[in-house]
Every structure is written in structure tokens, then in C-alpha cells.
Amino acid sequence: VSSAAITSALIWLPIAAAIVVWVLPLSRYATGSLAVLVSLVEVGLWIEQAARFDFGRSGLQFAERANWFSDLHVSYHVGEYAFSLWLVGLTVAAMAACVSYGFWVGRERPRAYFGLMLFLTGSVVGVFVAQDLLLFYAFFEAMLIPLYVLIGVWGGPGRLGATLTFVLYTMAGSLLMLAAVIVYGLQVGTFDLVDSPTSISRWLFLGFMFAFVIKAPLFPFHGWLPDTYREAPPEVTAVLSGVIAKAGTYGMLRIAIAKFPDPTSYYRTTMLALAAAALVYGSLLAFRSRDFRGVVAYSSMAQSGLIALGLFSGTNLGFDGAVLQMVAHGLISVSLFLIAGTVERRTTSGELALLGGMAKGRPGLATLLMTTGIISLAVPGSASFAGEFLILAGSFQRAWWWAAIGAGAIVLAAMYMLRLISAVLHEARGSTVSDEAMDLRPGELALIVPLVGVLLALSFWPAGISHHSFAGDNPSAVVKGQFR
Amino acid sequence: MTGGAWLCLAAPLVGAAAITALGTSIPRRAAAWISTLSTFVALAGALWAFFSLRSQPGHRGELTTAWTWLQSGNFKVGLELLVDPLSTMMMLIVSGVGALIVLYSVGYMDGDDQERRYFAYMSLFVFSMLMLVEGGNLLLLLVGWGLVGLSSYLLIGFWHERPSAVQAAKKAFVMNAFGDATMAFAFFILIAHTHSLSFATDFHLHLSTTATSLVALGLLGGAAAKSAQIPLHTWLPDAMEGPTPVSALIHAATMVTAGVYLIARTHPLFEQARTVELLAAGSGALTLLVAGLVALVQTDIKRVIAYSTMSQIGYMFLGAGVGAYANGMFHLMTHAFFKALLFMGAGLVIHALGGEQDIRLMRGVGRLMPYTKWCFLAGALALVGVPPFSGFFSKDSIVAATVNLGWYGWVFWACGVAGALLTGVYTFRLWFLVFPGEPSPFVREHHHRHHGLEGPWTMLLPVGLLAVLATIGGWIQWAPRWHYLTSWLEPAARTLAAAEPTSSQEYWTSAATVLAGLVGIAIAWWVYGREALPVPEAPFWRRTLEHKLWFDELYDALFYAPSAALSNWLRRDIEEQVVLPTGPDLGETALEAGGVVRRLQTGLLRTYVFFLASGAAVIAVVFLIVK
Prior knowledge:
The structure holds 2 protein chains of 2 kinds.
Chain A: H1 3-23, H2 28-52, E1 61-69, E2 74-80, H3 82-105, H4 110-129, H5 133-142, H6 144-154, H7 159-188, H8 202-215, H9 225-231, H10 234-259, H11 261-266, H12 268-288, H13 292-313, H14 316-347, H15 363-376, H16 383-398, H17 400-425, H18 442-460, H19 463-466, H20 475-480
Antiparallel strand pairs in A: 1-2
Chain B: H1 2-22, H2 28-54, E1 62-72, E2 75-83, H3 85-108, H4 115-134, H5 138-156, H6 163-194, H7 199-202, H8 209-226, H9 235-238, H10 244-253, H11 258-265, H12 267-272, H13 274-295, H14 301-322, H15 325-352, H16 365-368, H17 370-384, H18 390-400, H19 407-434, H20 441-446, H21 457-472, E3 477-478, E4 482-483, H22 484-489, H23 503-529, H24 539-546, H25 551-596, H26 605-626
Antiparallel strand pairs in B: 1-2, 3-4
């Protein structure tokens, strides 16, 4: 297989599988197995690609290009940079875990469900590898459709309201982005992200950013987040916060910052302030959240703020740290939401006041939640610590107060995460926790342990990502040179 | 040499990983012995490193890198270990005392159904502490620093069904996270100016005075939090919720003294910010007095010793702060011996009395536990600093080092001597209340023996060995006469000239502190030893001390309550009032508008596509116009 074909395979294999699942009248078991198999093949393809990737070389790799509307200079153009490689890796790993989780809990209407999950996989990969703005937009929209259905059909009791809010917010963002895409493409004469020159239009920058801050989300554009994260099935919440949110921060890096250098510096302080606000606001709300998913949801928002802080600091350390943190936080939040799912299955509730004492007699659950929680609060030595440290050191170089706000948020993170851990695991047994509530089963361990294992491995070598995201020793120059 | 260092670091990590991975497939006792063995292997590694460093001329040390841990641009941090006189000394203390305490735990934790978890945590702690002292750059030091905080959190909250233990664990972690944050902030300043966190470059930097002071202040914040110095001390007494061997290892012998190590390790920075260094000394002097006073009224045997630990670390901060790094490190070493001994002696008593910790009930337990009694006495005398016990040699030289510093030197000196008096009183208050005399009815009723002994051999042996070390461990250095330790540490942390007293100053300082200590013992005997005299009533002072000077209440009011109130306000008035309704409101509007435009809903795809495209086109035109 040629290297370039792998990129397309990563997109179209799951989408093809989705169509197969929708069309053929397979049994529940066959559908699930096929979906899990395909998502594992994706992981395999990605490993093959990572092994072939040349981290020393700048520019697009594994690129494939075919003309689409040649008079508009629109083409099917896909390929990967080092940082997109990591995000694709995050996507396939997270989707493999989440698809398997859906299989494990036996979701109703399996053909529809697994088809949608596979379709989602392909379109998210598409977002991270598309090198044409219209293609990017198409995948960006395509990934939302399965999400609407997944939340609206398989979600909790308040799913319809949550879906409506989610649709409204994302549509608002998408519409502005579509307009910005069209204007930008017509202005510069091409929709190709690699060839196109930079633009100085502040309005277009804001149009793109509007979509990305909703997706990430940053304060105060997160109105959809609490309900959606609470009502979606846990594995879909995991995808939303672990992977889809990263599409927002990826967009900031790939399009907003790289293509709009002047507007980026013009709005830098505003964007840094938005990021810092998300960081502090998310942390404070996580601290008083009443349920498991609420804590993780608001902490995800805080982490998005942190990542944006690194990106808009515009420093070497900030860029490298942000990419590392996107991957680390993606893995963390997928693990935490899946653990939340396993807890809710056992207790029928995620209310912290009704939980407690689950550590006793459940070493698997206790060890996993403790390990993930502790990595999530960025204990020194962990991959997320390495990411946060780089981001804050980078933002310090912009101005000391950004780092001071970030350092304060580290203390808040310790407070809300320890509160969550204790509320679930420690002290007296909660009223919804019965003695029969079992420890994690081998099937559940097999989903979550690999993710945590990758996090631990990254903790031993965070430079594996932080120094392998942009070619050479000067990430800001690479971003400035539009990754060429 | 570096092989020893890597072995020392890796062994406990392997131990922890093995216990976790094997889980319930091995018996609980096997987990205990894996942990003990791994710590003894670490000790062997430390000895290897020490002897090979000693055989090297000049013993200047060596840096060894495994791989690049973190890199971004030209900022690069290796996974590197530093083997130098300072780190080998710490390695020996940590793995040596650590090995004895883990061995003691084998007996102490016997029968607890969470033993595997306990020993995995202990091994994790030993690994983290060794990471802290061996780390060859500031970032790895911070990694060790955070990981000891983590293992301390895990072990304080080990009995997690107890709400008080969980609270104490969280408090310790959050307070230390604050210290970690100030340290990280200091590192950001260094990175911005030097692009490096290596020990070698930072120490000859040319920063502005303000920047240097801020860096030193950030480091001091971390040091004070970890070492429970005022004003970041309130977590340590609560940390006594953990099992007693944990208190001995983490909250007496090793982790809490890390702040002293940090100052000694980064002393060139502190010397360029002399005011901050003296601030460290001042906070040490204040802590040693306040903690000594609070210790006078505590009734929980472990809390008395915990306050004593704070007070003794105050001495170490005083020594390191005035520039007598070797003296501070010397006291760190002897303190590790005698304080671990006192905790483990207390542990034997608690064990024999079925978990009771109130000293008012324990009178006369020495009659039934003579071995414990004499070992504890050796620790108590070392703590007070009675010659020839180890504390005498190390504490007196710290106090003597302050005399040449001018007026504040004399203030420090007076604090040191007053602290010696307090040490005598609270230590022997504890002693007279617990050990001598006729056993009280409570003791008679609750005391039980372990197979005819005062405890299992795994507990008695470490206590005995530490009693020997607490007695003779100080003999390697007597400041006026011989300086083995100071010259060993000289390549890594040379004592400042201002902190080198003359022999005669050493002599009369010693005379003063020993006298103060003996007077303290006499007072304790007068009040508590004769059973006749009532303890003087002093309601206001007593209440003040029993409330630990209201630091907890103050911090609650200053930090916790405001942040909780702010969070609640944000949730109630911003999130629920403004942010969350926005979506549904938009939805309502959209639906109402939907009534008007229902006629547009033709059900034909091309109409929708048309509207979508024209909507986008309108926005596009707007963009084109306003750009």
C-alpha cells in the first residue's frame, strides 16, 4: 500500500463499513463485531502510518490530491502534518474504545448505532487530514450529523432539549464558518489550504474562530456543553470532549492562526483572555458541579481554554505544549467519561451526593479512576503535566499574568479532581451504591486500560509528541511559514 | 557510580509496578516482602553510588542522562540523574531509613486487608523521593516533588472510609499543589531568561535582582509547603491520619525535609537573593517556636511528634537560610534517625494498646514495654539535644551558625535557644505522661502482647537499629573539632563564610542550648513527672494553642470560602441565568419564527439547499462589504 493511500483509507474505510452496516441485515453480534474490527483496523493503519512518518521533514506528508471543481480550485486534497498525525491517532484510539464500549453495553438498534459511530470516525479523521477548505467544511459538518442522531436517539431523558441546543449552537458556528470559507476561497482564488496565501481580514478570522470557540468550547460559548455532555450516551460524550472538541482547537491552529497571522496578533489579547476565562470559569464550575459528568465536562472546557492559551501565546513552548495537551487531554477525558459510564451503569446515577465508598472491594475501578484522575489534575511527571508546563511556560513568555492565572488553575484542578475522586470512591457508601455493584469487568478493563496505558507511556516520554509535532526546533517559525 | 543511582531509583518503581500488576494473584504478605526487598535493593544502589563517589578524587559528581524527557524548540530537559555528595547523602538517608520503616510496616500492617495497596503506595513513595533527590535538573526535581506529594496524599488517605483521613489527604495535596505552582512559576521565569532548567546554568545566571528574588521566592513557596513551615504548615498535623509508619517515613524522616534539600541544592540562587534566603531562616525560626508551643498542649501522641517535626524542620530552615547548608543537612540526617524512631516507638505503643493515641490514657505503659521505653528515651534525648545523643551535635551547630549575622542573627540565636527549652518541655511531657510510673487502668485493660514480645521482630528490629543510630549517628561531626560531613558536602553546598562561627562561639552556644534543653526537661518533670502538681490553667493561651493559632479558620475564611462562594455565584447567577438559557431561548425564537416561515417548508430538498446557500451567500456578501 502506498503511504498516501493510507490517509484516504483512514477516512473511507469506516464510512464504507458504515454503509455496509446500514445496508446489510446483519445480526446485532455481527454488526458490533464488524464495527469493533474496523475501528481496530483503523488503529493498525494509523500505527503503520506513524511508523512511516518522517518527523524530520517539514511539509505535508501522505498527501493525496484530485481535482474536484478545477475552475474554483477546489480539490480532494488530504494529507498529514506531524501534529495532525497525533490527532488522527487520538481519534482512532478513542473511537476504538468508544465503539467497543457501545458493543459492550449492547446499544439498541445496533445497525443504526454502529453505522453512525463508524461514519463519525471517518468524518472526524477527515477533519484532521483535509487540506482543502471546502473539504474541511464538509467533514466538519459531516461529523455533526451522526452526533445529532446519536444524542437524540440514544441519549438520556433530556436528550431532545440537549440535541436542540447542540444543533442551534453548532449550526450558528458552521454557518459563519461556511461564509468565511467561501469569501476566503474567492478572495485568494483557491480553497487549497496548502497553496493559499495568508489573509489580513479580521472578519474572516472571527468567522472561523466563532465556529472553533463553540466547538472547543470556550467561555461564554459553551451553553450547549453541560446538557449535551450529561444527556448523550457516555461513549458519545467521551468522543465529544476527547476528540470533537479537539477539532475546534485544531482549527485554531491549522486555519485561524496559520492563515490569519495579522488578525491573530491583533486579537491575541482578546483570545488569550477568552482562553484564560474558560480555564478559570471551567475550573470553578467543575469544583461545584453536582454530578460526575458535570465535573469532567467543565474540566474539559477548562482544558480547552488551556490549549487555546498555548496556541494563542504564539511561542514555541505554547505550540508544542498545546499539541501534547490535546492528545493527553483527549485520552484523559475519553477514559474519564467511559469510567463515568461504568459507574452510572452500576448505580443508575451520576449524582455525587448519591455516590461514595466505591473503592472498597472494587480495586479495578478504584485504581483506574484514581490513576486517570491524578493524571488529569496534571500531577508532576504525567503527560498532562508536561503539556500544561510547556503551555504555561510559553504563555509566560507572552506575559507573566497568563501563566499566573494558569498556575492558579492548577490548584483549582487539584481541588475539583480530588473532590470527584473522593465523592465516588471514598468515605461512606453512597445510597445508590449497592454491595452487588461489581468491580469493572474484564471487558470494561480491556477498553479503558489501553487508553490509560498510552497515557502512562506518554508520561515516560512526553518529548515523543512535544518534539515531534512540528519539524525542526522552531514551531513558531513553522506555523508562521504555514507548515510548508 | 551512575549504575548505583539508576538501580536505587528503579528498584522501588519496579516494586510498586510488580505489586500493582500482580494484584490478588500473590498473597498479601508477598506484597509486603516485595516492597521491603525493593527498598533494600535501593539502599544497596545508594551504597554503591556513595562508595564509588567517595573513591573518586575530589568527589565532584557526575550527571547521567537516559533520554530526553521533554523537549520543545531549544528548551530541553533530559531524564538525568545527578550523583554528587548532596544527592548520595540524601539517597542513603531515604533508602536507609526507608528500608527500616518499610520493614517495620511488614509487622505494623499485618492483617490489614488493604496491605497490597499500602505497600504499592510505599514503594511509589520511595521511588518518588529518590526521584526528587537524584533528579539532575529542576524539572525532574519538581517531578519528584509532585510525586511525593501524590504518594503522601494516597497514604494519608489510606484508610479512605474515614472522612477525616480523606479530608486530611485532600488538604495536604491542595496545599502542596499551591507550593508546586509557585515553584513552577519560578521555573517559568528561569525558562524565559535562560531557556534551561539545568542545575549548572541556573546557578550562574545574570538576572535582574527582582527576577532572581522572584525565582527564589517561588522556590521558597514550594519548600515551605512541602516542609510545613509557616504559613503553609497546617496540613502536617492533619496528615497524622495516615498509618504510623507513613508518618515516620514521609512526615518525619524524608518528604517533609525536602524543602531543606531544595534550599541546599539551589543555594547559589538563594545567595543571589539574600533577603529571600533570610526570609527562609526567619520562617524557620518562627515555625520552630510556634510549633514548639503548640506541641505543649496536644494530647494525641502522633500530633505531639508531628508538631515537634515542624519545629525541628524550622531549625533546618534556619540553618540552611543563614547559609550553613551542611549543618541543616546534618540535622536533617540525625532528625531522620530520631524522629523515625519516635514515631515507630509511638507506633509500637499504639499497636499494643489496640489503636489508642490519647496520651492522657497511656500512663505507665513503659512498665509493660521496657524495650520500647528505652528506645523511645534514646530518641527523646536525641531530640532535646542532650550530649552525646545525635541531636546535640547537629542542632547546636545550627544555632551557633547564626551568631555572626548582626542583630537578626542574635534574634535567630535566641529563637534557637528558646526552641531548645520548648523541645525539652514538650518531649518530656510526652515521656512522663506515657512511660514511667504505674500502668493506668486503661493500659492494664487494653495492653496486649504479640506472641510474648512487645511487637513482631520486623517492628522491634528497625526500632532498635534506629535507637543506635539516634544515639551515635551524630558523632560523625562535632563542629568545633571535626567536620567530616561539612567537607563531604563542600563541593555541592559550601557553607557561607558568615555562617562559620569560631570554636568558642560553638562552645558557649552549645552550653546555652544544652542548658535550655535540660531546664525544659526539668520543667516537664516538675509539672508532669510528679503526678502531684496540677497542670497550670491558662484558658486563653491554652485555647489559642489548641486551635493552632486559628490558622485553619483563617485559611478557610480567606481562600476556601471565597472560592466556593465564587463558584456558587458563577453557577447560580451566570451559568444558570445567562449561559444555559441562551440555547433554548434561541430555540424558542427559532420555533416562533418557524410558524411564520412554515410555508417555506416545502419538503423539497432543493428549496432547503437554496435557502442554505442563499443564507450563506448573504453572510458572505456582508463579509465582503465590511472586510
